Amino acid sequence: METIAVATQNKRVGKTSSTVNLGAALALAGQRVLVVDLDPQAQAGTALGRHLSGGDQRARSLGWAIQCRLQGVRPDVSEFWFDRSELVAGFGGAGSLHLLACEESTMNAVREVIHRKGYCATPVLRRMLAEVASDFDFTLIDTPSAVPSLSATAFAAADGVITVCVPEYASLKGAAVTRAAVRHVKDRTGGECDPRYLGAIVNRSHPPSAREGQEVDFREAMRDAGLDPFPADIRLDRRIGDSFALGVPAAIRFAEQAPGRMYGNLLGQVLARMRRCREGQGVPVRTGE
Ligand SMILES: Nc1ncnc2c1ncn2[C@@H]1O[C@H](COP(=O)(O)OP(=O)(O)OP(=O)(O)O)[C@@H](O)[C@H]1O
Ligand SMILES: [Mg+2]
Predict the structure, then answer these.
(1) Is the shortest distance between the CB of 108 and ligand 1 below 6 Å?
(2) Is residue 240 part of a domain?
(3) Cα 209 vs. chain centroid, distance in angstroms?
């Protein structure tokens, strides 16, 4: 199983959309996929049509499972996930799609505990996922913006980390903070966790005709900031936002149209970079992929 975390300090740039659509594209390509929602806002669950509210649903939440584990109890992770494979069922050869769903109060409690215990507590999710590694080919983790303890937990669980920018200079800084944080994970976890930075998604981009030279500079600024943008960006597309609200990722609803093609292209580049990192070649910079 390979694990990818999607993170940046900035809000509303498309972390959740990127996570669920890349997960959907992987499932459509025949892979067994687990989406992990570490954001107390629980948006990945919404985007996959399974939103946990409080009450007795807390006991099915990832936050509850992590709390148990932090207290030394080993919950059976498979009892917590939701099978969302019905979303890709109509596609021949599709794989599977599961969700470890978040619920606000339990994940906020996790945030507090990890914040108190410090970096030594951050490998908790990695250890839980290791127990179900044979059930999945890929795990994608959605993270909150600006909650350092939960981002650190996602980085510790990840083999690769992707950040997300929108074509505005203000979004570079949050992504650069993420990239810098990834470099320190190995030291901070005593060598147990060693994620690689894979690159930055340019989300909500405009077509070349509308860029008027601006975005060329933006991509250049991303490279100068060491963010290694993926060549395939994700355009501003209403179908992506609408699908989020309907609980079925655009990469599935519009698999044969632009959203499906955009996420498919991006996925190919993400996997290629993961392969290069595994083989010790690192991420290509400035050259073609
Ligand atoms: N390429 C796109 N085209 C159109 N709408 C998009 C696109 N990407 C994301 N959106 C919409 O923008 C909003 C923010 O996206 P999303 O929730 O994925 O961002 P986020 O970074 O996860 O936000 P948060 O910081 O709240 O977790 C959502 O309503 C989503 O549907
Ligand atoms: Mg989000």
Answers:
(1) no
(2) yes
(3) 30
